[in-house]
Design brief:
about 260 residues; alpha/beta; Stationary-phase Survival Protein Sure Homolog, Chain: A; nine-stranded mixed sheet; two-stranded antiparallel ribbon; binds manganese (II) ion
């Protein structure tokens, strides 16, 4: 079984190495990952400059683009066969709640899902990121990878896994939680007296709601959230139907409606 591993922390990240090492016994591992840190690039694609991919060791490809580029290039260009599974991580830091929309780690799993390959994103929550600190997360990832392969995933669905930075107490199936964003822009002056700004440097809070990813990890559990790409807010459709937008008449073209 072929497993494609990627991340957004770059190919030299200890978290990616720990994940690749752990999965060696489970299948044939190929790494296709950004050649440098690309955290928080979301689902960005490189469209206006050429992409380079260098095989820095057998089965280890460093790509000059984003995590999404790496998955796309891996599946469509570099691998001889379609992988059975794509795992993105292990990210240095949690990917929970509203943060998912920024996450390159999660977007890589999203890209694999768009290509019809089962995928999971794995992140380690917590402050220490030496190779050894990824041990629990790597073994959880391998266990969940086996479970995903055994059961298969629902259509258009991947799993987002967040592991606490301790020996986890168990696994909780969760929903996406909610961040509390406040005072997250820091303003300062550079040595030449010009203002500069730093986004997201503060210690962000979260709503500690039962059943969420944040709540599970905060209480020492591994959080597993099934995600899909459909951003439609179905509950809001009934409200918006009362706006009667569909009955609005729009200014007509002089030629009449296009045919
Ligand atoms: Mn990252």
């Amino acid at each position: 079984m072929l497993i494609l591993i990627t991340n957004d922390d770059g190919i030299h990240s200890a978290g990616l190495q720990a994940l690749a090492d752990q999965l060696q016994s489970f299948g044939r591992v190929v790494v296709v990952a950004p050649d440098r840190e690309r955290s928080a690039v979301g689902h960005a694609l490189t469209l206006h400059v050429p992409l380079r991919a260098e095989e820095i060791a057998p089965g280890r490809w460093a790509v000059s683009g984003t995590p999404t580029d790496a998955v796309s290039l891996g599946i469509h260009g570099l691998l001889k066969e379609k992988p059975s599974l794509v795992i993105s991580g292990i990210n240095k830091g949690g990917n929970m709640g509203d943060d998912l929309t920024y996450s390159g780690t999660v977007a890589a799993a999203m890209e694999a899902t768009l290509m019809g390959v089962p995928a999971m994103a794995v992140s380690l929550v917590g402050p220490h990121y030496k190779y050894g600190d990824f041990a629990h997360a790597a073994s959880v990832a391998a266990q969940l990878a086996a479970t995903v392969v055994e059961h298969g995933l629902p259509a258009d669905t991947f799993i987002n896994v967040n592991v606490p930075n301790i020996a986890p107490l168990g696994i909780r199936l969760t929903r996406q939680g909610k961040r509390v964003y406040e005072e997250s822009v820091i303003q300062n002056r550079d040595p030449r007296g010009r203002s500069y700004y730093w986004i997201g440097a503060g210690d962000l809070g979260f709503q500690n709601l039962d059943g969420t990813d944040f709540h599970a990890v905060h209480n020492g559990y591994v959080s597993v959230t099934p995600l899909h790409m459909d951003l439609t807010n179905y509950a809001a459709m009934d409200r918006l139907r009362q706006w009667h937008m569909e009955e609005m008449s729009l200014p007509a073209d002089e030629e009449g409606p296009a045919t």
